[in-house]
Design goal:
Elements lengths: L7 E5 L6 H9 L3 E7 L14 E5 L5 H11 L7 E4 L5 H11 L6 H5 L4 H10 L7 E3 L3 H10 L4 E5 L9 E3 L2 H11 L6 E5 L3 E11 L2 E10 L3 H7 L3 E5 L5 H17 L4 E10 L5 E7 L7 H9 L3 H14 L12 E8 L15 E4 L5 E8 L2 H18 L17
Parallel strand pairs: 1-2, 1-4, 2-3
Antiparallel strand pairs: 5-8, 6-7, 6-8, 9-10, 9-12, 10-11, 11-14, 12-13, 14-16, 15-16
Helix pairs in contact: 1-11, 2-3
């Protein structure tokens, strides 16, 4: 690269998010290009930090995206490509492969995208996972349903969060669902349902080493919120608890096993109610959605979007990345769909409330305190009030895409 030319980053996203990632890269003096979908033209993207935005009808049409980016590359030298949303992890890897650019390629990307692939790799490394079977060979599927008692969970291999996930209560329900899926059924797996508490560990990885991580616990499993409605809530758990220490260890092992080299991760575990053991559920090579990055910034001073951008620029320049100083406050997050376009949160006025969502038809807030018990008490009180004051319930969206997955 010529010394006089700034680095050029191309970002790809089918959801409006990642403002701080774009700002961080632009602040480092880079040229910022964004490819997104026509339906997002009206979103408040940080235009002051974006040199050019290109709109396409549908980013799921991979060949069209490859053609478009290859055409763009005729006049614009591109140094690095990053996906902002979960759904563009795969196309970003294909673009890197096609343009011969640095970064995660297709096979490695699938390990943080394909739920079947990550489970197989984790199980081979003796990481505890719920028992599962690929929806492929019917004899193996029948044997699984005979061996593992219901209920089971039917999961798409490449959707984000809880989208497309369904609980199956008997074999007849499974066969009926597979008839509906038809030729798409090989893109699914069937998994043992384990009742328990769900945790997520959000991290920043530099040269295969976890340099920052924070352990949170959902108030209610995301699958239950997604399918049954309710308030999404999560909180940072006591950092001195045995659960926090164990989950940090599990998180490091999963990251090492799946081969993350540099970037942000969002990894989920469930603690089985019957045996208190932690089971690996899924890993994403991205920043967690649903305002989790905002929660972590207010509690620890680290914005994972921003630091992900700073890390990538440092690596391309051959510079050493340095993590900012980390605070150790505790925090909690509440979010729900709201009946009103602009819900009134003025009565949620505890001094620990440091942030309120500014998104149409959403109610959300973040609580910060030195005391994890104070956070839990306020979240419990406010979650009940949210359900009464604001909550609107939308039907699950099946396998269509949304912008905020956990």
């Amino acid at each position: 690269m010529s010394e006089s030319r700034p680095l050029t980053f191309l970002f790809v996203s089918s959801a409006y998010k990642g403002d701080e990632l774009l700002r961080a890269v632009k602040k480092q003096g880079c040229t910022v290009l964004l490819i997104t979908e026509e339906s997002l033209r009206g979103e408040p993207w940080p235009h002051e930090s974006i040199d050019h935005i290109f709109y396409m009808p549908d980013l799921r049409r991979f060949q069209d995206v490859i053609y478009a980016v290859s055409y763009l590359a005729r006049s614009q030298q591109i140094d690095y490509i990053l996906p902002i949303d979960e759904f563009e992890v795969e196309i970003a890897a294909q673009l890197r492969e096609h343009l011969r650019l640095p970064g995660t390629r297709v096979s490695a990307a699938r390990q943080f995208r394909d739920k079947l692939t990550m489970r197989e790799i984790a199980r081979r490394a003796d990481i505890l996972v719920p028992d599962f079977v690929h929806i492929l060979n019917y004899d193996r599927l029948r044997a699984f349903m005979e061996r593992v008692p219901p209920p089971w969970v039917l999961k798409p291999r490449t959707e984000a969060g809880s989208m497309g996930v369904a609980k199956m209560h008997d074999s007849e329900q499974v066969w009926r669902k597979l008839d509906e899926l038809g030729d798409s059924q090989s893109y699914y797996l069937l998994e043992q349902y384990i009742p328990g508490e769900v945790f997520h560990v959000d991290s920043l990885v530099v040269n295969c080493k976890v340099v920052y991580s924070s352990v949170q616990q959902y108030f209610k499993p995301p699958m239950d919120v997604y399918h049954g409605g309710g308030v999404f809530a999560t909180r940072i758990i006591d950092r001195n608890s045995p659960e926090a220490e164990e989950l940090h260890d599990h998180n490091r092992k999963v990251i090492e096993t799946l081969g993350m080299v540099n970037g942000a991760t969002h990894i989920e575990f469930i603690q089985g109610r019957a045996d208190d053991k932690f089971y690996f559920l899924e890993a994403a090579g991205r920043v967690g959605g649903a305002f989790i990055a905002d929660l972590l910034e207010h509690a620890t001073g680290i914005n994972l979007w921003r630091e992900w951008g700073n890390l990538e620029v440092s690596l391309l320049r051959g510079e050493k990345y340095k993590l900012p100083k980390v605070r150790k406050d505790y925090g909690g997050l509440l979010v729900c769909l709201a009946r009103d376009q602009h819900p009134d949160l003025s009565s949620y006025d505890a001094p620990e409330v440091v942030w309120k969502a500014n998104k149409p038809f959403h109610a959300g807030l973040i609580i910060i305190s030195k005391d994890p018990k104070r956070v839990e008490a306020l979240l419990t009180e406010y979650a009940s009030r949210f359900a009464h004051d604001f909550l609107a319930v939308a039907a699950p969206m099946g396998v269509t895409r949304t912008g905020q997955a956990g």
